[in-house]
Structures are given as C-alpha cells and as structure tokens.
Amino acid sequence: MPSLSISTLLAFKRWADQQTLAAIDTIDDSLYAEQKKIMIRLMNHIYVVDAIFKGNLLGIDHGYRALNTVETPTVTDLARDMAACSEWYLSYVEHWSTPTQPITFNFVEGGQGSMSSIEMVEHMLHHSSYHRGAVGWLIAQAGGVPPKMSSLSFCVTMPHSLNCTSKGSRKALSWLYDKKNKSPQKNSYFLMAINLSLFYEKRNIVFTPICGNATMFSTV
Fold it and tell me: Is pLDDT above 60 for 91?
C-alpha cells in the first residue's frame, strides 16, 4: 500500500502540473508578459528540482548548478519535459526495493545530504504543491482561471486528461477509478493522501520535517 499511495500522488502531480501549465498558456502575453514569465519560471523551478532528485535517486550528476535555468522554456516544452519526468518517477517507485535506505548526495548550493528514496519523492511532491499554489494565485491575478485542484476533479477527468503510458501510471489510475461504475474509488486511504497534498497546496504551507541528515525543505 505505501508505494501505491506514492503512485497515486505522483499521478495527481502529473495531472496538476499539466492543468496548471494549460491555464498559464491562456494568459494574454500582451497584457501580462512579465507575470506569465514568472509563472513559467516557477513551474520550471518545480521541474528542475524534480530532475535534481531524479539524479540523486539514480546516484548520478544531474547537471544542474542552480535551482532554475537561465533560459525560460516555452509552455509546450515544459509540459513535455514535466510529463516525461513524472512518468519516470511513476516507473521508479513501482520497482524500488529499498525505499527507506539512505542515499548520500550533494546539494546544488554545496554540502552533502542524506535522504532515503521515499523521503526524496515525498519532498518532491510537497515542493511542487507549494509552488503550484503560488502559480494559481498569479494566474488569477492575471485574469486567468486557476485549475481546480480537487480530488474529485482529478478522478473524474484523469482518464481523458492523463496520457499515461507507463505501467506505474496505469496501475495508479486503475486503482483510483472504478471503470464499471465510472466513478472515483471510495477509498479512505486515497482520499487522505490526495487531501494531504491539497491541504498544503491551498494554504501555501511549507512542509518542514527533517529528512535524514538534511533539512531539505528549507533549501528549495
């Protein structure tokens, strides 16, 4: 059940990222060019951190020396890259065998840290929720319509809005959605997991537990 709940939250993140980017794409460049750039850069920061932790999980140099890129990507390119990264995470958690084993890594800002695989993935999930909440507020300020980040919206729309190809994605979606009755699964564990993510997203609260030997939540 623990790895399945992580798959659920990763599927939700993939959906929420794409919904947020689609909302950003509707913002009028002629009126809100600077605000739109900030939105894209915040979403790109989410992607960069996702990619950094992917490298940490693989034990390789992720190639990033800062928490954002110098160039600002297009919404189309960012949507593609974030979707691919989400698919990688869904596949990764499906096959992990030692999720609680500590992994040593180097911080982008310098210094060394140690977190388990599950701590890294949980941090990545909470980090993205925090910044998507800020982006939603910016979208509204620029005359756009922030996406509805609710568990009901996720369950009902995901068969159409999620182009999931990995086995991990399909497993998460088949568990979440009752195909026979065409309705969300009435599963309290799922609702608790999704609502935890929504709690942080709606309130812009930073999740700050100490993970391993590093206080990661205060640095990203």
Answer: yes
